[in-house]
Design a protein that fits this description.
With about 450 residues, the protein is an alpha/beta fold. The protein contains 16 helices and 12 strands. α7 crosses α12 and α11 packs parallel to α16. It is globular and about 65 Å long. The structure holds iron/sulfur cluster.
């Protein structure tokens, strides 16, 4: 995989594999898909297509495809700008325009990008949306974000209100409430804006594709129960979740991507191999971790390296479930299309209560035979970060495994201090080692939370 190969892209734009980065073939295929979506957005106006924007958790991709929208996902745009080192300036532009330092940096990166004109992360045109579809799944910022865009650019908005899972379960009345909004408000609005009539059989067909991809994704994520784990369930999983969490769930391309990925991962299990990292196959697996919280994108590779250089693999993460908790059994159901869209939104990780999140993490620690929990607390993401210290203490108490806490940010390069994070991680790995040899259970949290920013 070291040789540069020109991969024919579906949009005719070849992607070169650089010589110094190692990726599985499926990772390259994933990149192709993401680029393809940016090209669809870039050519939307020329092709007379309307453009939608919607968030990853609770996204109704199959439904949007029924109306031929080109589909933009603002968080994905922000993280792509972060990985390309473009988000710092965008965030500062948004702050100069009046946004506070505490506002979610995805929001500021998005606003800063839009202030710079209709240009997306790839440098291709990114038209302003014709419709903002807000599936409200637990994060209040989602609502304020689209309010700001609507206010600034006058985009039409439609909101799907999804009740919070305060009691940790989905009741029939919660589901019916969401279905009613889909029928009475969301679908009529999408019909009017797009000029396309809704066809429920088209929705069913997309959902049949979704199920295939969901089955294969779960198989891949659960392969981390093997020793060694053939995947990294956080850094590597970011590539695996890309197509299904964005504009491709429900397409034959996504089904094909997950079929190829599953084959590659099964082969790694058969050969007893660990994950592929940017520097090649990971060496000996020494630590198995569960991670809670989104990654840092501006220093993504440096951050990952701090783990694989120490032999630490993330066997499962909550972030890899942010666009759907499929490993707990949910599948889109073509026989009950609107009901299953409602259940999908209700079941999103961001829509779960703190006790629900603690249960999920404890289950992962047990099922994946993990050594402990690492929380990457994101400075500007209140939705994830609020209550994480409580999660840490409760998970330690219930599992007896050591937990640790680091702090970074999503796409603000000012809040990633490599030396600080590395130092804390190394201490944490030492602590796991000591606890293994001494046989001690958990005591106090491994670190008091100190901002990683210097
Ligand atoms: S606060 Fe967190 S969950 Fe909410 S939009 Fe920002 S990154 Fe996403």
């Amino acid at each position: 995989m070291n040789t540069p190969i020109a991969m024919p892209s579906p949009i005719g734009k070849p992607t070169q594999k650089p010589q110094n980065v190692q990726k599985e073939d499926a990772m390259w295929l994933q990149k192709e898909l993401i680029n393809k979506n940016y090209m669809e957005l870039a050519t939307a106006r020329a092709n007379n297509r309307k453009v939608s924007a919607t968030f990853v958790p609770g996204n109704l991709n199959e439904l949007l495809m029924c109306f031929d929208f080109a589909r933009s996902l603002p968080e994905t745009n922000a993280l792509q700008n972060g990985m390309r080192k473009k988000s710092g300036k965008m965030i500062m532009d948004a702050e100069r325009d009046g946004q506070s330092e505490d506002v979610c940096t995805y929001v500021k990166a998005d606003l800063g990008m839009m202030m710079g004109g209709e240009v997306g992360p790839t440098g291709d045109p990114l038209p302003r949306p014709d419709i903002l579809l807000l599936s409200y799944t637990g994060c209040f910022t989602f609502m304020k974000w689209f309010e700001l865009i609507r206010h600034k650019y006058g985009c039409e908005t439609v909101m799907l209100h999804v009740p919070y899972q305060a009691d940790g379960k989905i009741t029939p009345s919660m589901r019916d409430y969401v279905v009613k909004q889909l029928k009475d408000t969301v679908i009529p609005t999408l019909e009017r804006v797009s000029g396309v009539k809704f066809d429920i059989d088209r929705l069913r067909q997309y959902m049949r594709e979704s199920v295939k991809a969901e089955e294969d994704l779960v198989h891949v994520l659960q392969s981390a129960k093997n020793r060694p784990s053939p995947i990294d369930g956080y850094f590597g999983a970011v590539y695996y979740i890309g197509p299904i969490f964005t504009a491709f769930r429900g397409t034959p391309q996504a089904s094909e991507y997950y079929r190829v990925l599953r084959g590659e991962i099964d082969e790694r299990v058969r050969l007893g191999k660990g994950p592929v990292t940017p520097d090649g196959d990971m060496g000996e697996e020494k630590y198995r971790l569960i991670v809670e919280g989104p990654p840092n994108w501006t220093s993504f590779r440096d951050f990952w390296k701090m783990f694989y250089e120490e032999g630490a693999v993330v066997v499962s993460s909550t972030y890899a479930k942010v666009g759907g908790l499929y490993d707990f059994g949910f599948r889109h159901d073509p026989e009950r299309p609107l009901e299953s869209l409602a259940e999908y939104c209700l079941g999103c990780y961001t829509n779960h209560s703190l006790p629900g999140r603690i249960d999920i993490i404890c289950k992962y620690i047990e099922e994946y035979s993990a050594d402990g929990l690492l929380i990457n607390s994101i400075k500007s993401c209140n939705s994830f970060s609020a209550g994480q210290l409580l999660i840490l203490r409760e998970v330690e108490r219930r599992t007896g495994k050591p937990a640790a806490f680091i702090e970074t940010d999503l796409v603000d390069p000012r809040y990633f201090s490599a030396a600080n994070v590395k130092n804390r991680l190394e201490s944490y790995f030492q602590m796991i080692k000591q606890k293994r040899t001494s046989g001690l259970g958990a005591a106090a949290p491994a670190f008091i939370p100190i901002a990683a920013a210097s």
